[in-house]
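Ticket #4471: structure output looks truncated?

Reporter: J.K.
Steps to reproduce: submitted the chain below (374 residues) through the standard prediction queue, then opened the result file.
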Amino acid sequence: MKTELSRTLGIEHAIFGFTPFPAVAAALTRAGGFGVLGAVRYTAPDDLARDLDWMQDHTDGLPYGLDVVMPAKKVEAPGDQTLTEAEVEAMIPEEHRAFVRATLAKHGVPELAEGEASGWRITGWMEQVARSQLDVAFDYPIRLLANALGSPPPDVVARAHDQGVLVAALAGSPRHARHHADAGIDIVVAQGYEAGGHTGEIASMVLTPEVVDAVSPLPVLAAGGIGSGEQIAAGLALGAQGVWLGSVWLTTTEAELHSRALTAKLLAAGSGDTVRSRALTGKPARQLRTEWTDAWDDPAGPGPLPMPLQGLLVAEAVSRIQRYEVEPLLGTPVGQIVGRMNSERSVQQVVDELTRGFEKAVDRINRIAGRSEA
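Returned output as attached by the reporter:
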């Protein structure tokens, strides 16, 4: 499963895997793919440095990358001064705080124990936090920097290139992809509607060839709705030079969801059990449909706030839901491919299955092509 891009990076399989779990990212890299560690949940630079140290010790000198979230627009104060986290939190209306309290009370969600910190604190949606993560990351030999929300600022792209790091950005439309190309991005991830997390409204089968044409000759990775080798073959047939997978790693044995109830929900879910909702971050993100997403999408409620306010607003609530495994509210970002995620396997087993499926698909197409020529 080699392409020009995989050869450039020195990897065996053109499988790029985004994950918040260092053990998953390292296992994918060791299995011949390219692990990309998500940085958004790291609130302290020292925590990110600790896990990058661990990655260094567990990737056998093979390449890996980092994914950050740098919003295209900052929340700024008058005079273009960037607001502090506390100042941003102060912008959250009391109506929304009351709605969170009422929703949790309705489902009997206990408070966190005294002194127990919220474990789900996504301040990484704020640019200054992402920049502090980059200050750490560039001390390590990462080979790829990906941004999930548009092109990184020009100085970040220049800094990465100065250190020999390729820059990738996710795109949900050809227009977004062309903007990335104009910004000097090296790799465009065409993320279709089916994908987990932040995603647009164009399906992968339509989006991938449109993005390939829009940014040629830049390499494109196909993302969204991909969880089998046959789907990887389809992505490459559409012109992609690799695939970007995220959801499939959530039910691997190396994943650290810290919730058997959530793992059970993922294993039982079908492809129709997800929804694009702003409930988690303020931007449309595909996730398991739960009574939490239903509450925020209900027109009778106050509606989600824009990023990063929504993420800050719900951080403690999500921690409480996860801590006490409140099943009706318990969810996670995941794509429609969740319908195929019905067993727990190691990362190596997933990669082996993907490569076998890819080989079968290629053989099938070769046989079809051979008969057509006869």
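Triage note (M.O.): checked the attachment and the full token line is present. The mean pLDDT is 92.
Status: closed, working as intended.
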